[in-house]
Amino acid sequence: MKKIKAIMPVLLPLIITLSLYLVFYSKIECKPTDAGFWLIMALGMSVGVVLTRFSLMSKINKTDSE
Known about the structure:
Helix content is 80%, strand content 0%. The protein is mainly alpha-helical. The longest helix is centred in the last third of the chain and has 31 residues, at 35-65. The chain is elongated and about 50 Å long.
C-alpha cells in the first residue's frame, strides 16, 4: 500500500496534463502561436518528468535493497 502512495505524486502531473489534452483535443492546433502547442509541449515535459522520477525511484530502491 505504501508503494501506491509513492507512485501517485509521480503520475499526478501526467494525469492532469493528459486530461487537459483530452478535454481540449478538438480545439488544439499545433501552431506555435496557439495555446494548444504549449499544451502539447507541457504533455511531453510531464512525460519526461515521470520517466525521470521513475528512474530515480528505481535507483533508490536498488541501493536500499543492497
